[in-house]
Amino acid sequence: MSKKKIYRQSDRSTQKSMPIDWSYEEAPENTSHATFFKNYGFFINGSFTKYDESQSFESINPANGEVLYRCTEASEIDVDAAVKAARVSFEGEWSNYSGTQRSHYLYRIARMLQERAREFAVLESMDGGKPIRESRDIDIPLAAAHFFYYAGWADKLAYAFPGKSSKPLGVCAQIIPWNFPLLMLAWKIAPALACGNTVVLKPAETTSLTALKFCELLQDIGLPNGVVNIVTGAGKTGEYLVQHPDIDKIAFTGSTGVGKLIQQSIAEREISATFELGGKGAFILFDDAALNEAVEGIINAIFFNQGHVCCAGSRLLVQEGVADKVIDLLKNRMQHLIVGDPLDKNTDIGAVNSKTQLEIIQRYVATGIKEGASCYECSGSLPNSGYYYPPTLLTGVSQSSTVVQEEIFGPVLTIQTFRTTDEAIEKANNTPYGLANGIWTDKGSKIFYVGSKLRSGVVWSNTYNKFDPTSPFGGYKESGKGREGGISGLHAYVKLVNNGAMN
Amino acid sequence: MAKEQSSDLTSHSNSMNSIPKTYKNYINGEFSRTESGRYYSVKAQDGKHIANVGLSTKKDIRNAVRAARKAHEFWANKTAYNRGQIIYRIAEILCGRREQFTTEMILLGYSREAAENEIQACIELIVYYAGWTDKIAQVFGSVNPVASKHFNFSRQEPIGVVGIICPETPSLLGMLGLLLPNMVAGNSQVIIASKRYPLPVCTFAEVLATSDVPPGIVNIVTGSKADLIPPISKHMDVNVLVGDTSLDADFRIMCELESASNMKRVFFWESFIPLNELNSTPNETIAFCLNSLKDPYYILYVQEVKTTWHPVSE
């Protein structure tokens, strides 16, 4: 993309700190051990099906725009085969396994992921464009941790639901997004298997690689056939999966728009569904906060994973008295961010996941400017090929601005100010979303007061974008239904029955 | 059964000294007539007219939702202890008005025994739920041992405004079975009363009005489901819909379909209230209902889980 810098009059003050030469030696991650095929079929009933040229699609490496591998788009027949395999497994072999046996498989998956972590990290970065530092330190270790955590639940479910016994739901249809491919897979598969379900999972069409690679690992540990099935494809494949008459559960992570369509499409069916949808998290910064730390927090809140994070802190609400100072600090800090090759260990911000997403981000920023926002972009250089977007601030926005109300899913932060605590709460809550919010203050009582008023499933205080398998995650309002992680995450995959311990 | 009615029902009978009651909606702590100005006739088993009950419309739903939303924060912010006491107080007041309910239910065709039985079950259920307000967070909340230097805890919070679609029968116990978990949860609600047996639900508003429940927390609207379910399921400021599977499948599908507009949570509990001929309702049925309604998971599902993180450092 062309690097058009937009500096407004108000940005002059920061020019003294503008282009600093922080050149680093290149530090590319070695990719030689991360092997993958050029073409992929599906993973059904324990083995890979044949790649089918006639229904193939390309997966692009967003770092350079080149084709990385090809996948097969699952048709209705393919999806049916996957669901059948999952059904047979659920009714048959898998149902005979005790919780203890299930836990042993899950523990093995966790260990195998740890052993092969670097390989998965490299593939994740190549496929999705995220910086290797993040895939290496966050995505893959957390995915392994999820399997390890839920492995332990498989034989302890009797303790998870006081007064109730649990039964598995059956065949789970799971659809995951492209922003944390393997991690989202782990969030979906680990609790489902722990509770005794079988799954058919569809990764996003731009990031199928680690899911397919994961199947090799399942073959290695000898997970019984049909317990996990992976079909690849785009929206149409997802539709076949959701519409399949023989599924018992839908777990969807993706946009609110698609979530609503799924909700409508299953209105006539008795089917359990959980959703993790969009977000527009506020990062509320009070004037008593440690500002330098808070600025680090903002950087992490919005620029983590190129801002492709449903819980991103994409709206900075800063208390009026410190707004100018914070914006200066932020601009200065942003100049030190390195946008570039995802496989370079120095890279802070990698490639935008796809051309489509890049265009969405560009369109939103253009809309923001058209509606009166001032735009400030990082001045560092961007790679010549591939899809990149510089860290960006939008100031002069109002609560009703499109860029404040809608999820951009990119490295774009809007900045608004507030005077009183209640005004901050009101602004934070004033979107249809309710996934996550942040509070930054040195006053403990304020954290609990504001935290209790924020209508979101996660509140990060004096921190942001932290995840853990023991920690429930999910949305209020239009950000979803249900939780993933912790004991709450088990609820999504069980039927509860009274065990006679009542009253 | 007609015989049983004779002595107690003078106030409702058609004798000269009776003063029949006008049954109204209960919105924002006030008894108000439906905006529609229309009504339907509730009849006794022998076909005699007992009362006119409002056929409410979209506008009444809108007023009720507005009242519920306005009151929500006040209720949500009360301490768990206080909420428990307020709910317990409902049982005390209902106890004192036992005879009024019995009389009305007999008029609708209940045997005296069945009426007394159901009311007793209602009182017991209220007391049961009153005790949950300050225990949900302890039983179902958690401190999460995250693998980083953070203190992390999850606890249940109210969801907001709830639309409650009452089963037709038993109208009072069924309504309370849906209402109480939501009151414990800290939600505020709009109740669509049983169309066939609305009187005990309407009269329950008198219990609420004379108890300590703040206005707007529980709003009761009467009328036909065909008029009331569309506006409540489409309403963008309603967060949850609850009912049970005794509701017609078409209505349930409508609720599911329309709820997608703002991702409402929709719950149709497996009918804990089997449809029975009222007079033959055996005591066991009520006992069974009561037992299955005593379930804290009904509270859990109408709450949100909020997880809070904070760093641990020197």
Walk me through the topology.
The complex is a heterodimer of chains A (503) and B (314).
Chain A: E1 43-44, E2 47-48, E3 56-61, E4 66-72, H1 76-91, H2 93-96, H3 99-115, H4 117-128, H5 132-153, E5 164-168, E6 171-175, H6 181-194, E7 198-202, H7 209-221, E8 228-230, H8 235-243, E9 249-253, H9 256-265, E10 272-276, E11 282-285, H10 291-303, E12 315-319, H11 320-334, H12 355-370, E13 374-377, E14 392-395, H13 402-405, E15 412-418, H14 421-429, E16 436-440, H15 444-453, E17 458-461, E18 480-481, H16 486-491, E19 494-498
Parallel strand pairs in A: 6-7, 6-9, 7-8, 9-10, 11-12, 11-16, 12-15, 14-15, 16-17
Antiparallel strand pairs in A: 1-2, 3-4, 5-19, 10-18, 13-14
Helix pairs in contact in A: 3-5, 3-7, 4-5, 5-6, 10-11
Chain B: H1 2-8, E1 25-27, E2 30-32, E3 39-43, E4 49-54, H2 58-76, H3 80-96, H4 98-108, H5 112-130, H6 136-140, E5 142-143, E6 150-158, E7 161-165, H7 171-185, E8 188-192, H8 199-210, E9 218-221, H9 225-234, E10 240-244, H10 249-259, E11 265-269, H11 283-293, H12 297-301, E12 303-311
Parallel strand pairs in B: 7-8, 7-10, 8-9, 10-11
Antiparallel strand pairs in B: 1-2, 3-4, 5-6, 6-12
Helix pairs in contact in B: 2-9, 3-5, 4-5, 4-8, 5-7, 5-11, 9-10
Overview of this protein structure:
- The complex is a heterodimer of chains A (503) and B (314).
- Chain A has 503 residues and is an alpha/beta fold.
- Chain A has 2 domains: 43-277 and 477-498, Aldehyde Dehydrogenase, Chain A, domain 1; 279-461, Aldehyde Dehydrogenase, Chain A, domain 2 (3-Layer(aba) Sandwich).
- Chain A has 16 helices and 19 strands.
- Chain A has a 7-stranded mixed β-sheet with strand order 13-14-15-12-11-16-17, with helices on both faces.
- In chain A, helix 9 links the parallel strand 9 (249-253) and strand 10 (272-276).
- Chain A starts with 42 loop residues before the first strand and ends in a 5-residue tail after the last strand.
- Chain B is an alpha/beta fold and 314 residues long.
- Chain B has one domain (2-271, 283-311): 3-Layer(aba) Sandwich (Aldehyde Dehydrogenase, Chain A, domain 1).
- A 5-stranded parallel β-sheet of chain B has the order 9-8-7-10-11, with helices on both faces. A 3-stranded antiparallel β-sheet of chain B has the order 5-6-12.
- In chain B, helix 2 (58-76) crosses helix 9 (225-234), helix 5 (112-130) runs parallel beside helix 7 and helix 9 (225-234) runs parallel beside helix 10 (249-259).
- The longest helix of chain B has 19 residues, at 58-76.
- The radius of gyration of chain B is 20 Å and the shape is globular.
- Chain B starts with a helix and ends with a strand.
- The interface between A and B is large, with 48 and 37 residues.
- Strand 17 of chain A pairs parallel with strand 12 (303-311) of chain B.
